[in-house]
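Workshop exercise sheet. Pairs work together: one partner reads the sequence aloud, the other fills in the structure field after running the prediction. Swap roles for the next sheet.
Pair: D.N. / O.F.
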Amino acid sequence: MADPRTGNIERATAEAEHIGPAFTGDNISAKKVANYVWNGSTWERAAPATGSTVYITILRVKAADPETTYIGKAVPGSLTSQAVWQIASLDENTNVDLLYADGGAFTQVYDDRESLTYA
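Structure field:
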């Protein structure tokens, strides 16, 4: 009899237990987990935290001015052409504070970062 811990079974288990890069918005897979809490008498699945959101962040240095860095933040899976980004600018020549486009609202298009106004 073949060893059940090898071949397709291991692969199926790995695929069932992991989320691939297409879903994480990163270049690595992530382990799927479920959190449980003790309610005083039994274990029950924990409810997801409210108000917490996972974001991806993109850092890009301005080609014409290497002292300027743009920082974009959005939920995983967002396209840089969508108006769902919070974008900040960091100019290391004049200011070490982050300056935000549109007050830091998640309403910007990351592809437009060099033409936005930052305050």
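Discussion prompt: Residues 8-45 form one domain. What would you look at next?
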